[in-house]
Design brief:
Layout: E1 5-12, H1 18-29, E2 34-42, H2 47-59, E3 63-68, H3 73-86, H4 88-91, E4 95-98, E5 104-105, H5 109-120, E6 124-132, E7 137-140, H6 148-153, E8 165-167, H7 182-192, E9 197-208, H8 214-217, H9 219-234
Parallel strand pairs: 1-2, 1-4, 2-3, 6-9
Antiparallel strand pairs: 4-8, 5-9, 6-7, 6-8
Length: 236
């Protein structure tokens, strides 16, 4: 591998503040590593969101903007991955990364995660997060030293979805059968197939917590989907 190329997969739906989206995009530009990005407008009702995304794609050929009917996070991610797969060879994509459009990355996130992945010989690397509650930041770190499958079965999350860096060979589509828990279903499938993960010990993104987040609006559905995914994919 001459140099890594990371492709961001970013769904976007009615971001509460368009300036948050701008800071997210700015945090892509701050990375000291080659990257591409596929951003899917998942049927946002505010036309300014698509206008802004389209403008980004016109100003920077590393950004591909896609407009889709509203179908939820899993479908938007699968649309982004499908588009990225078509340019995987021509753009030299070696990894995929996640970030939510209302969050933003530390400037050295990708450099640290790519090096950490190589050192630990895993297909998936997560990281800690800095959570912005609107009145201060709180660091949240994950220390999944035990078996991540047992971690999931005990209703813990072994790897924060917005922080994922995935090797190209380990990437796969998301299941749309588990509403608002597509990340847990993906992890269960990945681990069942023998996939390995590790977490960079420090926070590498800042996550904005607000009432419109999926984990707030669809909390009960998310809990039910998560439990069903663990049971159906990993078994008792």
């Amino acid at each position: 591998m001459e140099h890594p190329v990371v492709c961001w997969l970013i769904p976007c739906y009615n971001v509460p503040d368009i300036n948050w989206m701008r800071s997210c995009i700015a945090s892509l530009h701050s990375q000291n590593i080659y990257w591409q990005a596929v951003i899917v407008d998942d049927g946002s009702t505010d036309p300014k969101i698509w206008e802004q995304l389209y403008q980004y794609s016109q100003l920077d050929n590393r950004i591909t903007a896609v407009r889709a009917e509203h179908g939820g996070v899993a479908r938007a991610l699968n649309t982004a991955y499908s588009v990225a797969k078509q340019m995987e060879e021509s753009r030299g994509i070696t990894h995929y990364a996640r970030i939510d459009v209302d969050d933003y990355n530390d400037h050295d996130r990708l450099v640290k995660q790519v090096a950490f992945m190589k050192a630990h010989e895993v297909g998936l690397v997560g990281a800690g997060m800095r959570v912005d509650w609107g009145h201060g930041l709180v660091d949240i770190k994950l220390g999944c030293d035990s078996d991540p499958i047992e971690y999931l079965k005990h209703k813990h999350t072994p790897c924060f979805h917005p922080t994922w860096l995935i090797a190209k060979e380990s990437m796969m589509p998301y299941s749309e059968d588990y509403p608002h828990a597509e990340d847990i279903a993906w992890l269960c499938t990945y681990l069942r197939k023998g996939g390995k993960l590790a977490n960079y010990p420090d926070p590498l993104i800042t996550k904005r917590q607000h009432p419109g987040r999926v984990s707030s609006v669809y909390k009960e559905i998310q809990i039910q989907s998560r439990e069903r995914a663990v049971k159906e994919i990993l078994g008792e």
